[in-house]
Each structure stands twice: as C-alpha cells, then as structure tokens.
Amino acid sequence: MRPHPALWRFFFCTSIVYELALIFILFQTADDARQLLKHVDKKLGTPLSEKKYGGNCLLYDSSHPSDPFHNIWDKMDIFVPTHFFGWWIKTLMLRDWWICTVMSIMFEILEYTLEHQLPNFSECWWDHWLMDALICNGLGIYLGMITLKYLSMKPYHWRGLWKIPTYTGKLQRIAAQFGPYCWIQFDWQPTSSLTRWLCVLGLIFMSLLLELNTFYLKFVLWLEPPHILNILRLVLMVFAGAVSVREYFQLLDDPRDCKTFGRQSWVMVAIVITEFLVIAKFDYNTITKPLPTHITYFWIIALCSLFLWTVWKFFCNPQCSISKKVEGNLDLNDSQSPLEEEVINQDDSSKENGTNELHHRALKRTP
Predict the structure, then answer these.
(1) What are the helix (H) ranges across the chain?
(2) 53 forms bridges with which residues in the sheet?
(3) Which of 115, 229, 247, 292 shows the smallest number of beta carbons within 10 Å?
(4) Where is region (Disordered) located (predicted)?
C-alpha cells in the first residue's frame, strides 16, 4: 500500500478525531461554537461579509472604458484555482468522466437552487456555465482523465533503493514511493443493475452534500474561505475520501470477497451527516427558507423523470441491462491473451480425448 500504511492510518485516525470534534460542537450553541474557535484563532468569531458574484453580469461593460472587463476580473478569487484542482483530484478519486461531469453540472444547478440562502451562490450565468462548469471544472476533469490514462499505461518496475546505481534513479525511486504501487481502473457500470444504479446515485448524493457542507459550515461558523481550518478540512476530505471511494467501489465490484462496508467509508458517512446536523442546528432558519416556485417545479419534474426512467430501465425494459452484461463477458473473453487461449484449447482437447477414450473402452467391454 502506497505511500505507506501509516499515512492512511493517520488520516483514518484524524477523521475519527474530526468526527468526535463535530459531535462535541453539535451539542454547543451556535454562539458558543463560534467563540470556541477563538481558541484556535483570535480573529475568528466575527460575522462574515459574504461576497455576491451576481449583480452586473455584462461581459463587456462599455460604461467603464478604462477597464470594460472589470466584471470578469472581479470574479477571479481563490475559488477559481480550487475549482480546477478540486475537480482534478475528484477525477483521480472517482476515475469516471461521466460521474464527474454529472456532479459538476449538478452542483451548478444546486447553486442556482440555493442562491436565495447563501449570497455566495449568486453568480452570473457565464460564471456558472463558462468559468465554473466549462473552464475550471471541465479542464480539471480533462486533466484528471489524462492523468488517469498516464497512470494506467505507465509501467511499474519496483527495485530496491540500493540496487539502483545512479543518484538520479534513487531520487526518482524515493519520489515514486509516494505514488501508487499499481493502478486500477474503475468501471462503475451504473446502469448494469438496479443495485449499482442506486449505489451510484447514493455516491453522487453524498458527494454533493459534502460539497454543500463546505460552504454552509464556513457560513454558520464564520470561517473565511482561505482560513487554515477550511484548508485542513479539505485535505482531510481528499485523503479520507479517496480511501472511501476505493472501498465503496470494491464492495460493488467484488461482492464475493468484499462483503462489508469499509470502515473509512462508515466514518466519512458519519462526518457528512454530522456536518449537516451542525448546519441545521446552528442556522435552521437559513436552510429552511422556501424555494422559489420555479425552482420547486424544476426539482419536482427532475425527480419524477429520474424515478420514471429508473422504472422503465430496470422493470419495463430490463433486457438492455442483461445484454450489456453479456457484451461485457464477451469483451472479457475477446481480451484473453494467445497463451490463455492456447491453454484453454489444450484443456478442451484433453477433455475431448479423455471422453473418446472412455467411450472406446466401454464399446470393447460390451458383448
């Protein structure tokens, strides 16, 4: 296990400590929890001035001849690089272009949905779909897929450090120790069965809830986005989330050998739920603000469409899923190496010769 089992155990233990801290905060009042953070940083405990990204949405503002693109430059902040690198890391974790793209679009829709609750979510249309979804998120996902392709095609030759003659080779070997020992591709196959479909939907739901918790936690606890506590939480979520996704995929892909939900996955689920409970307790009035009418109609139509498609796919037209499974098995058979095919042919021929020999002996014994 790379980089080293001690690293993953450290983040597992840290995630447990973080969960215990969340439970402690959950039983405090909102004001006590905010003042408690002053023991970490004396600058905390004061209300935030939320930045609105909406307002004037002109790409080219002719009323400001000195800087007509000032609306674009005004939107450039810490969230631009975090969007890009965040989706690059998420792609390395999920290893699926479709799931990452769906989650990227879904989060932009959630920002539209919840902009009446958090001013931070109020953005211009081009900020949502051009800067975030297309440029930052899209390029991050694209870079992640290129990285996945490189890691899957890269040959892994491990040698002892003292068997490498050059100092450059030794340094490269030390750096490789912090990378993967080998690379496993994820094929989630969400539409292959109803169980996998519901499990992938659950993965997307929990991931989006974790994303929303990031914004709501800093809002209710009065934490500035670049504060070290936010950064440490994101680092913990990356490492703990990577292990959780790996455990979750193993449970879906190999149910015979992996029959239980991973312990890191359990802790991550507990963290997401506890964070949401903290948000709901500290600022219940904000998260219960009623949705606008057109947003409500949109989600009713979307959820009904998802439900009807699920019924049609897995109950009214189940043959598509069965045919995909058969095609997958045929692809596995076609991908056998010549040596494997030769061994299989030899086994088949030996069985056939043995059957013929037994039949010949039986004929000799009959009168």
Answers:
(1) 5-26, 30-36, 70-74, 79-94, 97-114, 125-126, 138-153, 167-176, 194-220, 228-253, 263-282, 284-287, 293-311, 319-334, 338-365
(2) 123
(3) 292
(4) 340-367
